[in-house]
């Protein structure tokens, strides 16, 4: 009679291979605020809730040719913006991209988005994982966008 151990190991390995890993980041409250003046940059805001240590290395939004993460800072009594190459995220610690803080500048929009519509925002992590989420499109001033800071 053959021992059952090898069969048990094969079954465990096969079951493990079928399970999907949990997403390493959840995105909520994604909003794209259109510019007041056509041709000017738009802005994206969202909340990222990480499930693991990682770095957000890029953000892309459908209908825009280019996106760049920025940080608003007070310098010499004036608000300035500086580009950000990556944003570290820690498990269970939400990161808010919001007015007067981290945000995403969106350039070269195709003009097809309208307030009340939807688009897709995608975040790329340093391990190559890409997570997409729906984003609500608002007008300049974005009265209905989240104000988390």
Architecture overview:
Helix content is 9%, strand content 50%. The chain is mainly beta and 149 residues long. It has one domain: PCu(A)C copper chaperone (Immunoglobulin-like, Sandwich), CATH 2.60.40. Strands 1, 2, 3, 4, 5, 6, 7, 8, 9 and 10 form a 10-stranded mixed beta sheet that branches. A hairpin with a 4-residue loop joins strand 9 and strand 10.
In the CATH hierarchy, the third-tier topology is known as: Immunoglobulin-like
Rg from C-alpha positions? 20 Å
Helicity, as a percent range: under 10%
Helical/strand content category? mainly beta
CATH architecture: Sandwich
Structure annotation, total helices: 1
Summarize the structure.
Helix content is 9%, strand content 50%. With 149 residues, the protein is mainly β. The chain has one domain: Immunoglobulin-like (Sandwich), CATH 2.60.40.
Produce the secondary structure layout:
Layout: H1 5-18, E1 25-33, E2 42-50, E3 54-61, E4 64-75, E5 78-83, E6 87-89, E7 95-97, E8 102-109, E9 118-125, E10 130-138
Parallel strand pairs: 1-10
Antiparallel strand pairs: 1-2, 2-7, 2-8, 3-6, 3-9, 4-5, 4-8, 9-10
Key terms:
149 residues; mainly beta; Immunoglobulin-like; 10 strands; globular; disordered N terminus
